[in-house]
Design brief:
Layout: E1 2-7, E2 12-17, H1 22-31, E3 39-42, H2 48-59, E4 63-67, E5 70-74, H3 85-89, H4 96-105, E6 107-111, H5 124-132, E7 136-140, E8 143-147, E9 156-158, H6 164-174, E10 180-184, H7 190-201, E11 205-207, E12 213-217, E13 228-229, H8 234-247, E14 248-254, H9 262-271, E15 276-277, E16 281-284, E17 294-296, H10 308-315, E18 321-325, H11 336-341, E19 345-348, E20 353-357, E21 366-368, H12 372-384, E22 388-392, H13 395-400, H14 404-410, E23 414-419
Helix pairs in contact: 1-2, 1-4, 1-7, 4-6, 5-6, 8-10, 8-12, 10-12
Catalytic activity: phosphoenolpyruvate + UDP-N-acetyl-alpha-D-glucosamine = UDP-N-acetyl-3-O-(1-carboxyvinyl)-alpha-D-glucosamine + phosphate
Domain Enolpyruvate transferase: 7-408
Binding site for UDP-N-acetyl-alpha-D-glucosamine: 92, 121-125, 306, 328
């Protein structure tokens, strides 16, 4: 087990370059097995999830190499086999193999995945989509068995709730289905556009990604002819923007797509952070006299649930009480008691509402990262605090943030990884 050791109180300045999107990467890697040729990605984030996905690929005789942000995957000799339960259970996004295996072989057997514990995230919408395409699905002993003996046939599918995971899984299953599948009430996240772009460049026919109606016309073959560059990680970008506003004396956040961050940057501007938004970067000056805000998480293009925890340390600097209404995962509150140990005035009620009141004089403490974004909020607060903060269960943070130690060190932070 690893921990992060932070000597807080140092002001941050300089530049930070955002890596490829984690939430794209964890879907694109499973999608690569739909190809009949080797596949190459660049701007791949160096995070633990990538290595776990490589282990799953290896179990299917799919070779891969990962170096310098470039990931090569060769699925040409793929075989059906039992996927390694250890890697599956450590990574919720492994459920994307349900859609890609179904699309490739017409069947899939996947142990129910693990990952962050942020409350219920059922896969009923995924199953609804697979069944609509003609597959039978049953669950037994935490394992999902999916089979389309008569082949996959196009269908009209309406998602009961907007789900990024279900949208991506249904797209992957439908790329080889006979006919044109119409997916309504689809999620609109940029990562879905990234997946569709990758598949379309290999010969898929996917239209409407980024809207709530996506049409997928099945094709027989998918062949990679060029390198796919993964979009920048909007959640990593938002995390550094909030940290720069809270503890920075001038920070330039590079390799961002500002349009992907508009709901987030709008809230920073509302607080009084004087952002300089450029074509592919955002400059954050030293921020003073901040105002409290009300945040309500929502599916894209709304305020991302993955940014409600990273923005919390910044809210402590606003004069008054800020309110966060968590509508996506109301149980996403495991950071609250840990932040309280550091001196943050924060509380929540049973309706997913979190209140953050202006507070200062944070002090170092030993805290635990329950999941990726909770860990990010603890790291940011530790950087703001006096004394030494130890963040245990650091693997959660490393799962989601590319080269975080190097990037923070280059911004003048004092942070190291140590063995627990």
């Amino acid at each position: 087990m690893k921990k992060l050791v932070i000597h807080g109180g140092r002001r941050l300045s300089g530049e930070v370059t955002i890596g490829g999107a984690k939430n794209s990467t964890v879907a694109l890697i499973p999608a690569a097995i739909l190809a009949e040729t080797p596949v190459k990605f660049d701007s791949v984030p160096d995070i633990l999830d990538v290595y776990n996905l490589q282990a799953i690929l290896n179990s299917m005789n799919v070779t891969s190499t990962f170096e310098g942000g470039e990931l090569m995957i060769d699925p040409t000799d793929i075989v059906e086999s039992e996927l390694p339960s250890t890697a599956i259970k450590s990574l919720r996004a492994s459920y994307y193999f349900m859609g890609s295996l179904l699309g490739r072989f017409g069947r899939a057997t996947v142990t129910f995945p693990g990952g962050d514990n942020i409350g219920p995230r059922p896969i009923d919408q995924h199953i609804k989509g697979f069944e609509a395409l003609g597959a039978t699905v049953h669950e037994e002993n935490d394992t999902v068995f999916i089979n389309a003996e008569n082949g996959l046939k196009a269908a009209r599918i309406f998602l009961d709730v907007v789900s990024v995971g279900a949208t991506m899984n249904i797209i992957m299953a439908a790329v080889h289905a006979e006919g044109t599948t119409v997916l309504e009430n689809a999620a609109r996240e940029p990562e879905i556009i990234d997946l569709a772009t990758f598949l379309n460049n290999m010969g898929a026919q996917i239209r409407g990604a980024g809207t709530d109606v996506i049409r997928i016309t099945g094709v027989e073959h998918l062949e990679s002819k060029n390198t796919h560059t993964i979009i920048p990680d909007r959640i990593e970008a938002g995390t550094y923007l909030a940290l720069a506003a809270a503890q920075g004396d001038g920070v330039l956040v590079k390799n961002v797509i500002p349009e992907h961050l508009e709901s987030f940057t709008a809230k920073l501007l509302e607080m009084g952070v004087k952002l300089d938004v450029r074509e592919d970067s955002i400059y954050v000056p030293k921020s003073v006299d901040l105002q409290p805000i009300h945040v309500k998480t929502a599916p894209f293009p709304g305020f991302a649930t993955d940014l409600q925890q990273p923005v919390t340390p910044l809210l402590t600097l606003a004069g008054g009480t800020s309110v966060i209404q968590e509508t996506i995962y109301p149980e996403r509150t495991r950071h609250i008691p840990e932040l309280q140990k550091l001196g943050v005035d924060i509380s929540n009620n049973t309706y997913g509402q979190i209140e953050v009141t202006q507070s200062s004089n944070f002090h170092g403490a030993r805290v635990s990262a329950a999941e990726i974004r909770a860990g990010a909020s603890l790291v940011a607060t530790g950087l703001m605090a006096d004394g030494v903060t130890e963040v245990v269960n650091a693997e959660h943070v490393l799962r989601g943030y590319d080269h975080i130690i190097h990037k923070l060190t280059m911004l003048n932070a004092d942070i190291q990884i140590a063995e627990e």
